[in-house]
Amino acid sequence: MRKAIIAGNWKMNKTPAEAAELVSELIPLVKDADCDVVVCVPAADFTVVGEAIKGTNIKLGAQNVHFAKSGAYTGELSADMLKACGVEYVVIGHSERRQYFGETDKTVNLRTLAAVEAGLTPIICVGEMKDEREAGYTDIIVEYQTLMALHGLTDEAIKAAVIAYEPVWAIGTGLTATDEQANETIGVIRKAIERKYGKDVADAVRIQYGGSMNPKNVKGLMAQPEIDGGLIGGASLKAPDFSQVVLYNK
Predict the structure, then answer these.
(1) How far is C-alpha 85 from the chain's CA centre?
(2) At residue 60, what are phi and psi to the nearest 5 degrees?
(3) Which of 15, 30, 181, 226 has the fewest Cβ atoms surrounding its Cβ within 10 A?
(4) What is the total count of domains within the chain?
(5) Any catalytic annotation for residue 184?
(6) Model's pTM, two decimal places?
(7) 3: DSSP letter
(8) Catalytic residue among 66, 94, 128, 226
């Protein structure tokens, strides 16, 4: 059985003081969670959040990582830097990185390889635009993005990785795929991994849904057999909301 993983993506929100307040409120609310709990915070919040969650069941995540170990990459952070800050998970290839900052399937792969080499767990984002879904290309796009991201990883590294299916049209819009749509597309991703790497690998890898999961829809989504968790945006910025998602089975 795959253990569920709920990860909050704070995006560009929360000063260190605000982050400390949020995570302090969150800690007691999710202490009895049955799933893995991760908060992916801005780099400015690594220290304060990392200190606050020591000894708790919450893990620290980052929102991006560079593929080089060091060099002339102003504004970037290497995997070793993240590791040294106590980061355990890192979001890679989020649609906002693809849309606003020129992320490509190639750089997603390079970042994933760098993260794994440093001992970080990648949360690899894949997903289609609204017009691509309407044109019937969803399956092709998510299969390609997934297999490109995983290229060069060992079977064991793929098993340990997390994939987040995030239909781009459902991020920050209040729209969400139906439970069945999300489950179907995540099933497509898993089948693509099975064809390439075998059933053992496909059965082990955890695949989240990342399109506006919230307290109102989490139970239906998490009841689907292919969905292993959620990458949570807006709902992760309020401790009561995020805790309700984390405790979806309580």
Answers:
(1) 19
(2) -90, 135
(3) 15
(4) 1
(5) no
(6) 0.97
(7) P
(8) 94
